[in-house]
Amino acid sequence: MDAPGQKGLFENSNIQTKGLVYLRSMTYGATAYFIMGSNLPYDEVKTLLSTPSIVDNAKEKLSKSAIILISNSSIDQNAALSTSFEALNAFIERPYTEGSYGYPIYCAGCYLDDNRFFHFNTNF
Q1: Alpha-carbon gap, residue 69 to 87, rounded angstroms
Q2: Which of 56, 80, 55, 50 is nearest to 68 (CA)?
Q3: Which of 32, 66, 85, 111 would give a disulfide with 71, using CB separation of 3.0 to 4.6 Å?
């Protein structure tokens, strides 16, 4: 959102704007956390997962590993739990749910009166 003008967001300029916050930007994306247990050395697993596209021999090697995958790529806030290499591979190849722009992962707000960034403070 662009910063509000001199009068803010209101038609009546007599409204007190001190302390009001507006949403300046929001970023969407996909998140995934996974744990992998493998008989392969760490460096080999890291190399196999770092390739832009998992090739057939990597798929064969990693399919024998134990995997726990927790992922979210949709707006509904429900995470998916999977335990297969195929699910991990599918997430790497296509991290977003079809027709969805992803999960909100970052939000920035600004104070209406001076456009300073809002920082949430839990010390009330």
Answers
A1: 8
A2: 80
A3: 32
**Alpha carbon distance 65, 35 (integer Å):** 10
Half-sphere exposure of 71 (CA within 13 A, CB side): 24
Q: What is the pLDDT along the chain (124 residues), one digit of tens a residue?
A: 556 665 555 666 666 777 788 888 888 888 889 999 999 999 988 888 877 666 667 778 887 889 999 988 877 778 889 998 888 888 888 887 676 777 777 888 888 878 888 876 655 4
For residues 98 and 64, give the distance between their C-alpha atoms in angstroms, rounded to a whole number: 29
Task: Detail the DSSP E strand segments found in 1-124.
Answer: 21-29, 31-37, 66-72, 80-82, 103-111
Bridge partners (DSSP) of residue 95 are none
Are 103 and 75 in contact by the 8 Å Cβ rule? The answer is yes
> What predicted TM-score, i.e. pTM, was given to this entire model?
0.58
Residue 110 structure tokens:
């600004």
**Cα distance between residue 8 and residue 99, in whole Å:** 34
